[in-house]
Design goal:
This protein is an alpha/beta fold and 416 residues long. The chain has a single domain, classed as TIM Barrel, CATH 3.20.20.80. It has helices spanning 7-24, 85-89, 95-107, 119-122, 137-148, 178-192, 197-201, 231-248, 262-272, 291-307, 338-349, 390-403; strands at residues 79-83, 112-118, 152-158, 212-215, 253-259, 282-285, 315-317, 356-361.
Length: 416
């Protein structure tokens, strides 16, 4: 995997986000006829591999709450979907274009769509007098668009606003206050979860409440936990956010954010924070590689969880996929081979018997502009709509294989 967030790109994304926030202060996107662009902010695209895990000392956090409820039981069955982050994080798509893309997603049989719930976009200013001020325009636009196409939002609660950064100028650094982060996570669930204020505000929409949230994205990666991963600190943030969410909706599942290397990070995190035991509702993972490697990494994650006494905790494969340019990229697959990879991997994930609760391809659409930038070529759909592609056809076939009867070559069940 390659680094799509060098210093120049991060600065450009910050400038785009700042410009968007200035607009969002004045305009609520959903339902505003004058607002042609549906979303707009810079965030994560495809992450790099996890870095070696250093120590576990927290940078800055209050002790996490000890009164955690027991983990929720694993959901029945497996759901399938796709990441749609570029539709909402790039400043290029009109509302009509977003609707056209999501209509195409809906026709594939996907039921879940994953994208960022940007804390930095919703709370650009620090609390005043201990009271947080949220501007929900960014998140409302996503919730409105997805629900309109009967897609359930699987959000990633990220990244740090400038006023709470532990490393100045780095939105991917953990917040100075995990309580602030937990407050946003709880407010998000109170708005978009079952019975939330958003659904009451838009009663004509199909109700597709958020049922599952990821706490951060790839906290085991130095790219997304700056300057370096801290399993103990992340464990504290997870517990803080989970406790805050439970107060407003105890039925929402709170996931360990998508890990690139769960076989090392999970033991380190549980070793540093034993309080986590029995209080994790699910673990999200990002098993990139060829089809055989994807399945092997899922098996390895399950084996690690069994060894930690987490055999019943569900896995969520929230990212896997391939870029078609450049050929030197770690996750490269030739355009001619990628459709087969997609169909094969989805079919196997649907019949793996490994406690996988969700599988989501990375990603629906990307810019397809710079042939040197691998992050521009993970998308399977045409950038601005139009006819279907070999990738979207393969995704549709893969979902059919995943949800249909098991084939003779179905993978053996995971141990434990």
């Amino acid at each position: 995997m390659s680094d799509d967030h060098g210093p120049d790109e991060r600065q450009a994304q910050r400038r785009r986000l700042a410009a968007v926030l200035a607009v969002l202060v004045l305009v609520v996107i959903v339902g505003a006829a004058a607002a042609d662009l549906i979303v707009l902010a810079g965030s994560s695209n495809k992450p790099p591999p996890g870095a070696p895990i250093p120590g576990t000392t927290a940078t800055a956090a209050a002790p996490p709450p000890a009164n955690q409820n027991a983990a929720l039981p694993a959901p029945s069955g497996e759901v399938f979907g796709v990441n749609v982050n570029h539709l909402f994080n790039d400043v290029v798509y009109t509302r009509a274009q977003v609707d056209a893309q999501l209509a195409s997603v809906q026709t594939t049989g996907a039921t879940v769509a994953r994208t960022d719930a940007l804390w930095e976009a919703v709370q650009p200013l620090a609390p005043v007098g201990g009271k947080a001020q949220y501007n929900w325009a960014f998140d409302d636009a996503i919730a409105h668009a997805l629900a309109s196409h009967h897609l359930t939002w699987m959000p990633i609660i990220d990244y740090t606003p400038t006023w709470d950064e532990s490393v100045q100028g780095q939105e991917h650094s953990p917040p100075l206050s995990f309580t602030d982060y937990g407050d946003y996570a709880a407010a998000f669930v109170a708005r978009y979860g079952a019975g939330g204020t958003f659904w009451k505000q838009y009663p004509s929409l199909p109700v597709e409440p958020v049922t599952t949230v990821e706490i951060w994205n790839e906290p085991d990666s130095a790219e997304f936990w700056v300057p370096s991963p801290q399993p103990g600190a992340y464990g504290d943030m997870y517990l803080t956010a989970r406790a805050a969410i439970e107060k407003v909706n105890p039925n929402v599942r709170v996931l360990i954010g998508g890990l690139t290397d769960p076989t090392h990070f999970l033991p380190a995190m549980f070793g540093a924070r034993p309080l986590l035991k029995d209080h994790v509702d699910g673990v999200a993972i990002h098993p990139y590689g060829n089809p055989a490697t994807v399945i092997s990494k899922v098996r390895a994650a399950r084996a690690t969880m069994v060894s930690l006494g987490m055999a019943s905790v569900p896995l969520y494969v929230t990212e896997f996929g391939w870029t078609t340019s450049p050929s030197s990229a770690p996750d490269y697959a030739p355009a001619s081979a990628r459709p087969g990879y997609i169909t094969q991997t989805l079919g196997q994930l649907g019949h793996l018997s490994c406690g996988v609760a969700a599988s989501l391809l990375y990603t629906w659409v990307t810019p397809d502009i710079d042939p040197r930038n691998a992050q521009n070529w993970y998308g399977i759909a045409n950038t601005f709509g139009g006819a279907g592609t070999a990738g979207t056809a393969a995704f549709t076939s893969g979902l059919s294989a995943a949800t249909g009867p098991a084939q003779a070559n179905a993978p053996a069940p995971c141990p434990g």
